[in-house]
Amino acid sequence: MPVEITWWGHATCTVEDSGIRVLTDPLFTRRLVHLRRRRGALPPSEAAVADVALVSHLHADHLHVPSLARLAPGTLVLLPRGARRAVPGLRRLTHLRLTEVEPGMRVEVGGLVVRAVPASHDGRRIPVGPHRSPALGFVVSGEARTYFAGDTGLFDSMAEEVGEVDVALLPVGGWGPYLGPHHLDAGRAAEALARIAPRSAVPVHYGTYWPIGMDAVRPHEFHTPGDEFVRRSAELAPEVTVHLLGHGESVRPEVAR
């Protein structure tokens, strides 16, 4: 069965591999605090159907409790270590199987192995207080090896930690006109692609949410990261096929046999 990847917007994707549906950083809302969904319809109900959901870190646009609540009873959710202590709302999700992981841990889900890997990002729920939960990426191994980077900056051991993969789901933008440290913009994401050297890539985490009232402020920062990633990847990693998806679109990338 071919591996299929669907991008629902922001960092939310479905990866179908070996008959298992993997959902990344579920976010199914029109508005989140000061952010509004400006492009793409809300994902349909089928987007919340998953065997396992991966949560990369505790920021509210990646760990969104109301979106997790939409998952079916018994769905396995992999969260960074310390998430339940840091996010009290998770205690209400008694219908889900919440499992905390940290870099290096592996979890088997049907015919898949999900491995947590490090990310260079602030893993706290709010930008104050001690660092108690790591930010994570995940490598999903089945018919393909798919790297979901979550939110991360470049770091020296990235290629070593991720290992050999077929597909990389890389963040290339954000939800505001400026990206702080420990993020990938289109150029840095292309550099990450050159380091990791997958067969193909899908840019995510751009062109979906934007601060309310800032529609006219540097709008190119909202619209262009995907196209810029395609351009920079052609320069830095020309051997990698980049699939630029619209919201709700899917691709079946080529994988090594």
UniProtKB/TrEMBL annotation:
<feature type="domain" description="Metallo-beta-lactamase">
    <location>
        <begin position="21"/>
        <end position="206"/>
    </location>
</feature>
<dbReference type="Pfam" id="PF12706">
    <property type="entry name" value="Lactamase_B_2"/>
</dbReference>
<dbReference type="InterPro" id="IPR001279">
    <property type="entry name" value="Metallo-B-lactamas"/>
</dbReference>
<protein>
    <submittedName>
        <fullName>MBL fold metallo-hydrolase</fullName>
    </submittedName>
</protein>
<dbReference type="GO" id="GO:0005737">
    <property type="term" value="C:cytoplasm"/>
</dbReference>
<dbReference type="InterPro" id="IPR036866">
    <property type="entry name" value="RibonucZ/Hydroxyglut_hydro"/>
</dbReference>
